[in-house]
Design a protein that fits this description.
six-stranded parallel β-sheet; single chain; binds iron/sulfur cluster; five-stranded mixed β-barrel; 473 residues; binds 5'-deoxyadenosine; 22% strand
């Protein structure tokens, strides 16, 4: 009852820095190195959180490694968005049992969205006795304190506080990439889509102060980062809770005003809050990637209502028209849920119809997964699995055709590409992403990783395009 967002004071963060020093002292006492693995499931927000966990672990004297077999500390950062994500996290945790048996000193911690649900917390408490401690999304900033306690004591503990989320500044971050960065601008969600567990596990919307966001962006750009993705569950609500007249479009403008050659992306936008002002801001700022991820979820007005999405297909399509008018080369992607309770064949056809009308470059599609405690999970119109799978296959078939056709349109154009590294499938090729987010493959004699280059597109497939470097920036 009466839960609130908790702003973590500088003093409280300093206490965590003090715990980081204490763990470092413990580590320095032993004449050996200490290794930590952070395993991440789920969305970009979780990846960003894991970079904080890794940053704190590194500050405590751990080397961040990839192989659990070598680790003294394993942190599993879990996701709860669909059952599949939870089962994967539980399964990997199960595999660590033998590591703990071989090395009783090994510390295993589980955190993130899954454990912020009471029934999953109980699951781990009871069925995974070798897990040392567990902390919810709101307790991430307390990781150093919890780890210290686990290092000096023998007790197991489970810390999920009864808040609507926390907001902490000043924690160290160890970024995975040296040229692409996540920048969280806000946390939590107020929307309560009826299928979604996020508002329950990540609390209410809370924005970081603009000074903090701008300082982080500036520091990233000055240290050579070429692409920054602004993260929030609903970035279009940025600033609404701050009490001054400053919104997401204003923030984008201020970030674009920072000197340097960089690309800004953002996700996720809720269609009910995506404003013309935001689209105008994108149109006016070449530093913002010509890409918009606008989750539709369903093309049927009845299902949108049952999902509590608060927009109708007509308003969604109007927004798309405005985007295309203002930014003709914009690439649009979306999220679709198939088989939501009560979805009829006609509802599903409405979704296919929007796919044909909008012609997304790419879609992220999911079979509806009932989440405990959400309104949709107790609707008595759940759709049988076979129907869900059959619709899912039809959705993908249509989208693959559209993606292929849209990719063909890139042939003979020149695209600005941020090079990500050597191709996973072909060591003779480099891979990058163009502004639309598409994967681009090309040959190069020199290592262009982390650089922005121009690629002339020669050939396209459904998921990839291929080209050659034409002029270096
Ligand atoms: N079942 C299936 N997909 C879901 N998503 C969110 N909750 C569920 C669920 N219960 C999808 C939505 C959202 C994306 C991140 O995950 O499409 O936009
Ligand atoms: Fe979930 Fe809806 Fe919030 Fe997105 S906007 S996190 S789908 S509740």
């Amino acid at each position: 009852m009466n839960k609130q967002v908790k702003i973590i004071s500088k003093e409280e963060v300093d206490i965590q820095h003090e715990y980081m020093s204490r763990v470092r002292v413990l580590n320095n006492q032993a004449d050996r190195s200490w290794r930590a693995v952070v395993r991440t499931f789920g969305c970009q927000q979780n990846e960003a959180d894991s970079e904080k966990i890794a940053g704190m672990a590194e500050s405590m004297g751990y080397e961040i490694v990839d192989d659990e077999a070598d680790a003294d500390l394993i942190v599993v950062n879990t996701c709860a968005i669909r059952e599949h994500a939870e089962l994967k996290a539980l399964s990997i945790t199960g595999q660590f049992k033998h590591l703990k048996a071989a090395n009783p000193e090994l510390i295993i911690a589980i955190c993130g969205c899954m454990v912020s649900q009471e029934h999953r917390l109980d699951d781990i408490k009871n069925r995974y006795p070798y897990v040392n401690f567990l902390f919810g999304t709101g307790e991430l900033y307390r990781f150093p304190e919890l780890l210290y306690k686990a290092r000096v004591g023998n007790e197991r503990f489970f810390v999920v506080e009864d808040t609507e989320g926390t907001l902490a500044e000043g924690l160290p971050i160890k970024r995975v990439s040296g040229f692409k960065a996540w920048l969280s601008i806000m946390y939590g969600c107020n929307n309560y889509c009826t299928y979604c567990v996020v508002p329950y596990v990540r609390g209410r919307e809370r924005s970081r102060m603009r000074e903090d966001v701008l300082a982080e962006a500036k520091q990233l750009i000055e240290s050579g980062y070429k692409e920054i993705t602004l993260l929030g569950q609903n970035v279009n609500s940025y600033g609404k809770d701050l009490g001054y007249d400053y919104d997401f479009a204003d923030l984008l403008n201020d970030i674009c005003a920072i000197d340097g050659d960089f690309i800004i992306r953002f996700m996720t936008s809720h269609p009910k809050d995506a404003s013309h002002k935001l689209i105008d801001t994108m149109a006016a700022n070449p530093k913002i990637a010509r890409q918009f991820h606008l989750p539709l979820q369903s093309g049927s007005n009845g299902i949108l209502k049952a999902m509590n999405r608060k927009y109708a297909r007509e308003a969604y399509l109007e927004l798309i028209d405005y985007m295309r008018k203002m930014i003709p080369d914009i690439s649009i992607t979306t999220d679709i849920i198939v088989g939501f309770p009560g979805e009829t064949e006609a509802d599903f056809s409405d979704t296919l119809d929007i796919l044909s009308k909008v012609r997304y470059d790419n879609i992220y599609s999911f079979i509806y997964s009932p989440r405990r405690g959400t309104p949709a999970a107790s609707m008595n119109t759940q759709i049988p699995k076979e129907i869900q799978s059959e619709r899912f296959a039809r959705l993908l078939e249509l989208q693959h055709k559209i993606s292929n056709e849209e990719n063909q349109k890139l042939v003979s154009t020149t695209q600005r590409v941020l090079v990500e590294g050597i191709s996973k499938n072909d060591p003779g090729m480099y891979t990058g992403r163009c502004e639309s987010g598409r994967l681009v493959h090309f040959a190069s004699d020199t290592d262009l990783t982390g650089k922005i280059v121009n690629i002339y597109i020669e050939r396209a497939e459904t998921f990839n395009v291929f080209g050659k470097v034409v002029e270096r920036k």
